User: Which sequence fits this backbone?
């Protein structure tokens, strides 16, 4: 999407006009114009020159938002940020304040003459005392000055009328000009009386009361007040994005040829070693080579508690080093850093349009012409009824100046901008305005298990020594045996030991037994580690141990056994444990009336165990990547679906879902495929995203209701349809100026939202049920076509990682459509789309050091 800055837009009608002009260009797929940020996003095979020309022909100006340097194909990050900041810079408010100050000075004098002298008898200079014509001419001169100061309304309004697309400024210009024109006509009538001899004092008094110079001046002045308030509040809606940009580091300290140099941020390249001292901002994304620190990552995640970092850990640009000195190697620089991508996402989201905004856009396109027509009809009807030209004109002018298309145009974008800013501040990134809207309409949330509900890496959960064996003895033996192994389960045991033991006697003859476990000797006595099946070849567990083994397996944990010299020492259970906040997140989603289902490629037993811990009672296990996408398709028949995942294998499902939500710490492909990115990698941010979206939608509905209700109620009032109420055009202008300000201020209330507070959550009005689909799915999700399946009896699988290894090997075989391995059942079930010989399947598995006992 190419972004442009659009100049000259003043209301929703202008926005609709620009959008319509660019949409007419050939090869333009989508156009989104934002009145809030004065920006436009264009998607399609069209040149910038053609887009700019179309906008200019519509009566407005346009320029590319950020153009790459002619010498450098890639724009520097600092220049890109400057372009973004320049685009968001508030140039309008200072101009409006100056206009208002000058207008107020002349308007006060005018109001003194019209209200103070004429109505309250305030004194005036002697040459104006009882001089009706002199007073009228003075009022005219003062009105001309105020109208000239606010000439932007008249220039813009006239231009829009010439182009056949009248905007809000046209209403202001018409209302003020008609007031001035009528008053000028009255002055000519007064001059006729004066030149005809001694004027009739009562007649002059009557003519003087028909002057509307104060309205001609007050209308643009009051609209300027409203524009200024609107501009101030609009500026506050982009504060989140502007504050993000201010956090961007400008320089970095790098190490080159053994020397420390301070260089511009754009001079840091991938592979450079940079140095960060306490209190400094980290300049680019990198990996710590030396030292440690506590890093404040609130700029990215919204979490205020610093995160401990050590050698080998990743650090991100714009985060703050709170303590410690470290050196790091740059991995991503410029616009590739996480921080830059966040800014880009928030900026792109502001340039897109939410579907709900289309209602206001359709109305705005015809609103101003309709109001002009209504004002003309009102004037004619009151004239026909004999109310007098003055009364009829007053009613028509009131209709013109009270009508406000701006409130309609701002109702959606201001709320979307504040909502996006709130999300970014809390580590929740909505890529488009549509994704912010759709997240709140979600009825079903599908969660990937590994890395989303669980931590994604195995941890020790239980240490159960055998009778007569101490816990320390079991852990020491386990550490010594597993320390040399590269198996993920071995690493989990090693990492769980805080103080590595120093054995009195070293191990000898250590060797891994693929598919079984480990063997070694210590002081001439054999040591064993491995699965229950393997350990039973060297010793027999007692009944208590077998019961514990069964319990752990039912909980989705993998028990590893250890023995010495034919005697069982005990077992250590390892599992991919659920995240601390997973159960809370699931509970919050269900309290919102959302159905929660967990999808996983794991076996049924493990999936059910994890689901039970997380509070998910709807689990679909044995699902492969294409199967996940198929499940999402099936779920979409029941309601709006959000898919939450973190891996490459989740990408098809994330793309298929109505709302794809990616865990920020996951694979880049998953993040790219998603509509919403959670930088914190916390599952409670899913419920927070839904909560923020719902509040934003409610705020938009409030704004739209106010914008429509304002016009529906006040236009008839201005037309004089309510008995006993006669609205002065000045009050109409005041009401119009406040309507847009009210919409903006209502949107700013979103800044007070506590997005992690579930106390005000409400269930959806029309929740859905997916019980039917759950009844039709057991441990596998299969396509409706009949497929050939084969079951391999595999020996040696000990954990989920073994399962993944077997599955990957089988999926690499031509003709294998899917594969589901289960280390508890010692099976691998393959689905074939063509005939595959048993020997080929057997070889694929046995090449991974597992033994195939048979194929059925």
Assistant:
């Amino acid at each position: 999407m190419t972004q442009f800055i659009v100049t000259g837009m003043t209301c929703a009608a202008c926005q609709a006009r620009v959008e319509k002009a660019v949409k007419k260009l050939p090869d333009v797929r989508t156009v989104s114009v934002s009145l809030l940020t004065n920006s436009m996003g264009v998607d399609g095979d069209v040149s910038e020159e053609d887009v700019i020309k179309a906008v200019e022909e519509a009566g407005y100006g346009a320029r590319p938002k950020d153009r790459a340097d002619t010498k450098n194909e890639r724009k520097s990050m600092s220049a890109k940020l400057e372009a973004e900041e320049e685009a968001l810079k508030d140039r309008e408010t200072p101009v409006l304040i100056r206009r208002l100050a000058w207008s107020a000075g002349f308007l006060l004098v005018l109001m003194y003459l019209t209200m103070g002298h004429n109505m309250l008898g305030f004194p005036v200079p002697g040459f104006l005392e009882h001089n009706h014509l002199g007073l009228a001419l003075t009022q005219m001169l003062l009105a001309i000055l105020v109208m000239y100061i606010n000439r932007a309304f008249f220039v813009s309004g006239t231009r829009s009328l010439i182009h056949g697309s009248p905007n809000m400024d046209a209403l202001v210009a018409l209302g003020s000009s008609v007031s001035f024109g009528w008053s000028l006509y009255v002055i000519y009538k007064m001059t006729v009386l004066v030149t005809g001899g001694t004027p009739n004092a009562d007649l002059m008094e009557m003519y003087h009361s028909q002057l509307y110079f104060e309205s001609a001046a007050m209308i643009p002045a009051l609209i300027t007040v409203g524009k200024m308030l609107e501009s101030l509040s609009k500026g506050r809606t982009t504060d989140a994005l502007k504050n993000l940009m201010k956090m961007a580091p400008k320089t970095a300290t790098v190490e080159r040829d053994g020397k420390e140099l301070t260089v511009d941020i754009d001079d840091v390249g991938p592979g450079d070693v940079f140095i960060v001292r306490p209190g400094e901002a980290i300049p680019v994304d990198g990996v710590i080579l030396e030292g440690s620190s506590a890093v404040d990552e609130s700029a990215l995640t919204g979490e205020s508690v610093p995160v401990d970092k050590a050698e080998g850990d990743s650090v991100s640009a714009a985060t703050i080093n709170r303590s410690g000195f470290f050196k790091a190697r740059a991995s991503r620089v410029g616009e590739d850093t996480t921080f830059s991508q966040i800014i880009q996402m928030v900026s792109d989201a502001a340039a897109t349009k939410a579907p709900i905004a289309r209602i206001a856009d359709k109305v705005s396109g015809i609103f101003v012409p309709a109001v002009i027509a209504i004002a003309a009809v009102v004037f004619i009807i009151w004239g026909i009824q004999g109310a007098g030209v003055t009364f009829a004109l007053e009613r028509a002018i009131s209709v013109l100046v009270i009508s406000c298309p701006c409130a309609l145009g701002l109702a959606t974008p201001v709320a979307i901008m504040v909502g996006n800013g709130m999300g970014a501040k809390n580590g929740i990134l909505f890529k488009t305005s549509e994704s912010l809207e759709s997240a709140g309409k979600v009825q079903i949330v599908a969660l990937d298990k590994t890395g989303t509900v669980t931590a994604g890496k195995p941890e020790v959960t239980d240490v159960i020594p055998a009778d007569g064996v101490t816990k320390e003895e079991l852990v020491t033996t386990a550490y010594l045996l597993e320390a040399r192994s590269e198996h993920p389960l071995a690493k989990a045991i090693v990492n769980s030991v805080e103080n590595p033991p120093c054995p009195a006697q070293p191990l000898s003859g250590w060797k891994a037994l693929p598919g079984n476990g480990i063997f070694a000797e210590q002081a001439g006595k054999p040591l064993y580690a491995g699965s229950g099946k393997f350990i039973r070849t060297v010793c027999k567990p007692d009944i208590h141990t077998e019961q514990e083994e069964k319990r752990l397996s039912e909980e989705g944990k993998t028990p590893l056994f250890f023995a010495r010299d034919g005697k069982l020492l005990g077992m250590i259970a390892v599992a991919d444990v659920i995240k601390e906040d997973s159960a809370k997140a699931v509970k919050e989603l269900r309290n919102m009336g959302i159905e929660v289902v967990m999808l996983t490629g794991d076996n049924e037993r493990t999936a059910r165990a994890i689901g039970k811990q997380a509070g998910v009672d709807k689990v679909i296990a044995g699902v492969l990547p294409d199967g996940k996408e198929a499940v999402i398709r099936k779920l979409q028949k029941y309601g709006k679906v959000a898919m939450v995942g973190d891996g490459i294998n989740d990408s098809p499902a994330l793309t298929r879902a109505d709302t794809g939500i990616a865990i920020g710490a996951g694979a880049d492909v998953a993040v790219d495929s998603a509509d919403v990115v959670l930088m914190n990698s916390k599952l409670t941010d899913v419920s927070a995203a839904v909560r923020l979206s719902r509040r934003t939608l409610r705020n938009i509905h409030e704004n739209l209701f106010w914008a429509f209700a304002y016009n529906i109620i006040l236009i008839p009032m201005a037309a004089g349809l309510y008995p006993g109420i006669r609205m002065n055009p000045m009050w109409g202008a005041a009401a119009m100026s406040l309507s847009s300000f009210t919409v903006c201020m209502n949107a700013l209330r979103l800044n007070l939202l506590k997005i992690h507070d579930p106390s005000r959550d409400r269930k959806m009005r029309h929740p859905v049920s997916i019980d039917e689909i759950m009844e039709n799915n057991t441990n596998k999700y299969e396509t409706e076509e009949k497929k050939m399946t084969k079951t391999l009896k595999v020996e040696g699988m000990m954990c989920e990682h073994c399962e993944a290894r077997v599955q990957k090997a089988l999926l690499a075989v031509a003709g294998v459509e899917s594969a589901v391995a289960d280390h508890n059942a010692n099976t691998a079930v393959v689905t074939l789309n063509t005939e595959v010989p048993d020997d080929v399947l057997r070889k694929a598995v046995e090449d991974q050091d597992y033994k195939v006992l048979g194929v059925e």
